[in-house]
Every structure is written in structure tokens, then in C-alpha cells.
Automatic annotation (TrEMBL):
It comes from Urocitellus parryii (Arctic ground squirrel). Keywords: Cytoplasm, Disulfide bond, Hydrolase, Iron, Metal-binding, Nucleus, Oxidoreductase. Homodimer; disulfide-linked. Interacts with DRG1 and DRG2. GO terms for molecular function: aminopeptidase activity; endopeptidase activity; metal ion binding; monooxygenase activity; peptidyl-lysine 3-dioxygenase activity. This is Bifunctional peptidase and (3S)-lysyl hydroxylase JMJD7. The keyword Cell membrane does not apply. GO terms for cellular component: cytoplasm; nucleus. Bifunctional enzyme that acts both as an endopeptidase and 2-oxoglutarate-dependent monooxygenase. Endopeptidase that cleaves histones N-terminal tails at the carboxyl side of methylated arginine or lysine residues, to generate 'tailless nucleosomes', which may trigger transcription elongation. Preferentially recognizes and cleaves monomethylated and dimethylated arginine residues of histones H2, H3 and H4. After initial cleavage, continues to digest histones tails via its aminopeptidase activity. Additionally, may play a role in protein biosynthesis by modifying the translation machinery.
Amino acid sequence: MAAAALDALQRALREFPAAARELSVPLDVPYLDEPPTPLHFYRDWVCPNRPCIIRNALKHWSALQKWSLPYLRATVGSTEVSVAVTPDGYADAVRGDRFVMPAERRLPLSYVLDVLEGQAQHPGVLYVQKQCSNLPTELPQLLSDLEPHVPWASEALGKMPDAVNFWLGEAAAVTSLHKDHYENLYCVVSGEKHFLLHPPSDRPFIPYELYTPATYQLTEEGTFKIVDEETMEKVPWIPLDPLAPDLTQYPCYSQAQALRCTVRAGELLYLPSLWFHHVQQSHGCIAVNFWYDMEYDLKYSYFQLLDSLTKAVVLD
Ligand SMILES: O=C(O)CCC(=O)C(=O)O
């Protein structure tokens, strides 16, 4: 590419995030005091791809009054669930030159609760987080404590959720920075979740690299080894930890601007599709989220273009 064209492209990519931010990205995630109508949800939040935290949207869920660690022990303690186990709390994250996925254990929920309450020891960090509708498939006994979908969101989006996920883990369990092609309605039932967010328009400042996929294996002695997934293709992932970014290696990230928010018990975060998110939690936080597949519309195509241009041009 001619030097002048490359220069122009680099400048455009460097200026794009601030221009997009000025037009449509809030400084903080706003609160709504009650659930929006389907029309307002679609018009004010989904269409402009803007996050918000909605209060009083879950108050008719009996889960809000009932769910606690003792309640889970009494109702589903003997049920086996899939648990992600990692040495450091990071499932699906870059470690050295690998993209490492968690070891997966099938454990009775009561055992997970014992570990959470300090009554049992297990190597590493536990997180009940299997993202394939683990609520209806693994813990169907809990379904009567909530609604199977978010009616105003289903109506606005014209579809039902693809997945309903249950999350329960230790404070050390962290979800590394990534994005999804879902409209995410994230409901905290007990405890709190801390989200660090970047709008999709920050993509030019967010590094991706290709990594050999691998999985943690837990040995008999309770140590972890990393085993390559020989048959899987390389995985594009974000190597950067937004809590301690390596700005020598990724200087551009200093120009990205994260939004931070805490979602408390009884609150619902609308996390729009393609927003980057990094998630931490209070110890024993219980949450449920609904993933609605995004519309593969022009917004999606424009993001793909931004992604391709960012990959093609090195910014520093
Ligand atoms: O709660 C978490 O740890 C992660 C949630 C998340 O990444 C998601 O819902 O897409």
C-alpha cells in the first residue's frame, strides 16, 4: 500500500473511537428505575447499541428473595453441575503463548458450596459458568424461581433467548476481556458483578493475537498442567488484561476508554452485542443471564469492516 494511503488509514482508525464516543457512547452506564416497554428498549438501547442498568425488572422473581447459598444447598445441593476449574481464576484466557480453557469437573453443587463457604478445599478456583443454557439443562429445579425469558426484551428483539446461563463462583474467578454476538440481559440475583466495558468502536485500540488452544488438566496431585488441543484451530483472543494493561507492548490501549459499572442484586445489565467486557464478582455471587442472538445487520457488517481494517493496519 502506498505510504500516504496507509497513513490516512492509520489516522482514520486512530480517530474513529473518539468520534464514535462523542456521538453515542455515554461516560457512565445509565440507570433506568423500571423496565422499559419493548418499544423503548428497542428504540433507546438496542438500536443505538447502548448499555444500561435496569432496576426493578426482576422483583417478581421469587429467586430474588430465595436464592442464597443455603437455599441452593437445600434445593439443588445433590445435583451434579459442570464446574470450570483454573489455577488462577481465569477461564478462557491467554497464558504465555496459549489460549487456555478451564479444566471441567462434574461436582455436586453442595461440594462447590462447601468450597465457597470454606468448609472444603479444592485445588485452584471454581466457577459454575458453563455457557450452554446450564440453568435449564443442569439445574431445572430452579426454573420455577424466575421467568424463562425477559418478556419485554423477547418482544423487542422478536425472538426467545438462545441460552439461559447460571453463574456462581469464587471472588477470584474472573472473565477475561472478550465480546459476544449476543444481546446480553445479565441479571444479578445475589452479590455483585463488576463489569469493565469498551464499546465496539474501541476495536482499533484493543489487541488481538492468534493463540494455540489448550486446556488445563488437573493432575492427581492437585497441580495444573496445560495440554494443547491438537485438533483445534488457532484462536484469536485479547492478550491484554485491562486491570493491568501492558502499555509497553500495547501502547494503543492507553487511548481506549473503559466504562466501569457494578451490577447489584436485583439489577439487570443490558450489555449490547459486540461490546467488550471483563467481569469480576463478589464471593459467591449468583447470576443468571439471557443471551439473545444479535441481528446480523449493517451494524454487524460495519463492525466486521472495522475489525478487518484494524487487523490489516498496525497502530502504535
Ligand atoms: O459473569 C461472568 O463472569 C461473565 C459473563 C459474560 O462474559 C457474558 O455473559 O458474556
